[in-house]
Amino acid sequence: MLKTKMLWLLSLILLLGILSAAPASAGDLILNINSGADSTVWFVSGEASLVMNGFDLTPLNINLPAVIDRVSLAVNTPVPGASIDLLIYEDSNGRSPVDARLVSQTQVNITQSGTFTHVFSSPITVTQPVVWIGFYLPVDFRFLADTSGSSVLTYWGWTNGGRFNVNDLSSAQVLGPADGSAPVNINMNGKARITAEISSVGGGSAIPIDPNAPTELSDGPIVQRPGGPDVNTNIMQAFSANQCDTLYRDVDDMTITYSGGVVVECKRLWAGYAPPDPLGYTRQQILYEITIYNDQGFVVTEWLPAGITHCIEPYPDDVNDAVVGLAFGAPQQWEIRPTLRYGNLVCAEIGRSGLLSYFLPTDETKQAAGVS
User: Fold this and answer.
1) Who contacts 324 (Cβ-Cβ below 8 Å, separation ≥6)?
2) What are 238-280's pLDDT values in tens digits?
3) Helix, strand or coil for residue 363?
4) Which residues in the chain are classed under CATH 2.60.220?
5) What's the predicted TM-score (pTM) here?
6) If one looks up domain 225-368 in CATH, what number appears?
7) CATH second-level architecture of 4-200?
């Protein structure tokens, strides 16, 4: 069943009235993934539906924990008297929000067209690098979206003939991005006009962050290089839990470089969660998720000033060419890291939380890098 229909294209500037629930000081930063002034109108049909946007806090240099003090939605036509839940989730991995954790559920009453804004009497604390913010909207409710093109950053969720448990997004019969793909099968060609205001509240990473930490590491393709002969790999310690026993980390980096101020945890993920392979490389073997915590227990979401060496033990047939990749962001994308080989291990400096795996460069990539 087609869940929503686009009504018409509006060429308007959203200088609409603001409907506030209560006065409060504004956040330091507006979370807004929209662009342009043109909008389309979408409406909910069939059954009540959750519409929400994903926001990656990492590139915004927001220290965690942070607080959200207000959320806004651009409304075309409300359904007065209908029950509407304003929902905020936090997500540690930036993939599908199916495993995101609900941190706030607030019932709101939207009675007018315009920009509805709810101000929380007590700001909502988030501790993870990705947040999802949305509204569980009733049938016939009409809201605005921009016209910036297909995106995976607005998600829809619903259950036919009923309502799913908002504490567990996996309970939704249908949940996915509105980019035309299954199971939602809606292409909004834009993103819902949902915004929020957020502020850091102290804490965050206890480690000073280098604002110039690179995300692009080389002008040419990265291939494996031999490591030095005098390196002691005996200090590398395997992750013994969560099926991560072929991934190792340098415990001296944690205990000496950071004086015990960081902890790294690993878990093995289903390979289907991996982002698409980067051009010129093919992912192999296991998909790991590593999470770096500081000494206050908060997730480190920005680049560390010095990386923590991680080594992967590839299959024997792959060890001569394998390179390490790190995926991060929302949506997550792979970055091939400069990789050194020490015996049966391939190693790279990892300076932030994300997904880890190893890759084999294609013949074309090796030729471009000047290796056979």
Assistant:
1) 310, 312, 336, 337, 339, 346, 347, 348, 350, 356, 357, 358, 359
2) 987 767 889 999 887 787 777 778 889 999 998 888 999 999 9
3) helix
4) 225-368
5) 0.53
6) 2.60.220
7) Sandwich (2.60)
